[in-house]
Each structure stands twice: as C-alpha cells, then as structure tokens.
Amino acid sequence: MQKTFLTIIAIVLSTNFLLSQEVTNKGRFSGYMFGDYFYNVARDTGISSLSNVANGGKKDFNGFQFRRIYFTYDYNISEKFTTRLRLSHEPKTYGSDDKLVFFIKDAYIQWNNIWAGSDFIFGIQPTPTWEVSETIWGNRFLEKTLLDLRGIATSRDFGISLKGKIDKQGIFKYWLMIGNNSGNSFESDKYKRFYAHIQYTPIKQFTATFYADFKARPNINDPASTSNPPETVANNDLTYALFLGYKEKDAYTFGIESFLNQRQNGMISKGTLKDKTGIGLTVFGLYNFTKEVAVVGRYDYYDPNTDSDVKGDSRNWFIFSLNYKPNDKVTISPNVIIETYESLPNRRKFDTSITPRITFFYTFL
User: Fold this and answer.
1) Residue 309, pLDDT above cutoff 90
2) Cα–Cα nearest to 165, from 194, 127, 201
3) Would you call 116 helix, strand, or coil by DSSP?
C-alpha cells in the first residue's frame, strides 16, 4: 500500500511538473528600460517658436528621466496562434510633466502560417514603416529612427496586416497593412492608412527595404473655386522610404535611409494650391572595438517643405555615443545630441542645441 501511495504521489508530481513546463513554454514575460541624465548646455531662446525641433527644452535644464519602460507578455495559444500584450511608459519630451503611467503599446493576435510562409495579425501592432531599419540601427535607446523622430508616421496602429515570404528562401519578404492611423488611440474618423513594404535580404548581413503608405484625409475647399459651395480637392498624404543596411554582428554596422513625404494640395503658393513635399535622409554607423565597447555616430537631415519659397524649417541633427556593455543585458552610453537650424528669411540665425547625456539601457526577464 505504501509503495502504491508513493507511486501515485510521484505520478502527480511529475504531471504537475510537465504541466508547469508547458505553461512556462506557452507564456513569457520580458521587458526593458532606458533613461538618462541629460544637460542642455546650449539652446537658443528662439527655438520655442520654431516647428520641427527635435532637440528642444531650455538652456541649463537638466535631470534624470526614463524615456521608455516596456513590460511585455507573449502567450502561445497554439502553434497556429500567438498573442502579445505590451505596456509602455514613454514621456513625450525632456522635462515633460507626464506621470509614470503606462499605456497599451501592443495588443494583437497572430495567425501563423495562415498559408505557407505568411502570417495574419489583428490588433494594435507595429507598422511596417521602420521596423526593419530600427532593428539594423540597433540603438533605439539612444534615439528613434528618422521617420519616427520627425513624426512622419506612427510606430503602432490598430488594424490588420499580412506579412511573410515571397520566395521559399525568404530573400524577398512583404508586409501589407490597413490601419486606423490613430496610433494607440481610438478611431476618430472614417479615414484609414494603407501600408506596403518589400524587404530584400540576399545575404544575412545586408538588407534593403522599400516602403510606401497612403494616408487618407478629408478633402479641403479649393480657394480658386467660384462655385457655392466651393469645389473640394484631395488632401491625402503619400510617403515613400528606401533603406539600405549592413550589419556584421559584434563588428560594425552601416545604414542609410531616405524618405519623401507629400501632401496633396498641402500649401498655397501665389494664391493657388500645390503639393507640399518633405524629404529626409539619415546615415549612421557603429564600430565595435571589442564586444563590450562600441562607438556610434549618426547624421539626419530633414526639410518638411522643399518649396523654394519656404525657408527656415530644415534641420541638421547629430548624435555621437560611446556604448559600453558590462553585461549582455546592460549598456551604459555617454552621448551627445546636436541640432542645427536653418536661418529664417529675415536672416535671424539660431544657436545650435547641444545636449550631453549618460544613457542607461537594460533588459530584464
């Protein structure tokens, strides 16, 4: 009897262990945080009146701040269906009075291999805009990628997407998405955003992507119209981006990305409507002296309106960093951000913005 009882106990314990292992394998918590000590050593008092300023704030302002806290739960319902819930804290700017509150960053279900090599996703999810270029950049804890930094699109949208391989080897991949264009917020109108992305990876180290999206917007009145009510014209946004990246793990990384953003009938010139066109270019590089120590440099150029009649709105942005990894999950980065501003038509010049920082980045779980 005692032997039978012990056998039953052993079976129960082993069953519980197997069940706990299955649950552990199905669900996983993870996350990361990054923040810094920053000091605005140089600022022009006039930049508060400028648009498209990425490196704002007042001179001599300094402090400690988290710029992002992620807490993620991934759960595998089955081999076919996986889910993610991610909470995030991301204050808008240095010196923001936002409380340490969290919002839903991701909330989606993914149907894996809905057909061979393709996945279907529903919910709040990443958009195709810079998912690949941000991965190659690899230094999100230092700063956003160019299109993200300048607010050209949103990193998340609520909608549906289809992504996968075009060929069996995965040299060519695609990503299509339809979203509310409301980010993580509720839908507020009937207009949608349509995303398309093609990725080319002929070798492991090199990746090229072409991206385009169409953001539907309501029509606007034509100022040249003489009818009553006035005729309306399109006011939609179209964005195109090209990225090339090369990454040799623990050795060096190089990337270049450019975009063109166009709003139909987005400006008035000499009494008539015309398209408003913005452009941007980013070039970045990373070099590892050792596995623990690397240097990073990046340059961005951004002009939200390339029309010859519009001056004073282009920006040059730089970041330089020394990344030290005392542990695989910890990075400490002394870095400096620099932004310069185009002079206004009245020849008003603006002093360069300079912000040194010590950034701390760490992952957990």
Assistant:
1) no
2) 201
3) coil
Cβ neighbours of residue 91 closer than 8 Å, sequence gap 6 or more: 65, 66, 67, 98
Q: Band of the pLDDT at 152, cuts 50, 70, 90?
A: very high
Q: How far apart are CA 262 and CA 269, in angstroms?
A: 16
- CB distance 68 to 41 below 8 Å: no
- Residues 70 and 66: their CA atoms lie apart, in Å, by 11
C-alpha 14/C-alpha 8 separation (Å) is 10
Pairing of strands 27-39, 330-341: unpaired
DSSP letter for each residue of 215-284: E----EE-TT--SSSPPEE---EEEEEEEEEEEETTTEEEEEEEEEEEEEEEEEETTEEEEEEEEEEEEE
For residue 296, the tally of other CB atoms under 10 A from its CB is 21
From its phi and psi, is residue 262 left (phi > 0), alpha (psi between -120 and 50) or beta?
beta
% of residues, the chain, pLDDT over 70? 92
Rg (CA), the chain: 24
**pTM of structure:** 0.89
Angle in degrees, CA 145, 148, 153, rounded to 5: 140
Print the domain residue range for 100: 2-364
With a cut of 50, say whether residue 10 has pLDDT above it: no
Counted residue by residue, the chain has a size of 365
- Average pLDDT on 331-339 reads 98
- Residue owning tokens 């040249």: 224
Task: Indicate the helix (H) or strand (E) that contains 25.
Answer: helix 2-26
Number of domains observed in the structure of the chain: 1
224-239 pLDDT, tens per residue?
888 988 899 999 999 9
What does pLDDT average to over the chain? Answer: 91
81-89 and 62-76 strand pairing = antiparallel
Which CATH number covers residue 325?
Answer: 2.40.160.10
Provide the H-helix boundaries in 110-160.
131-137, 146-149
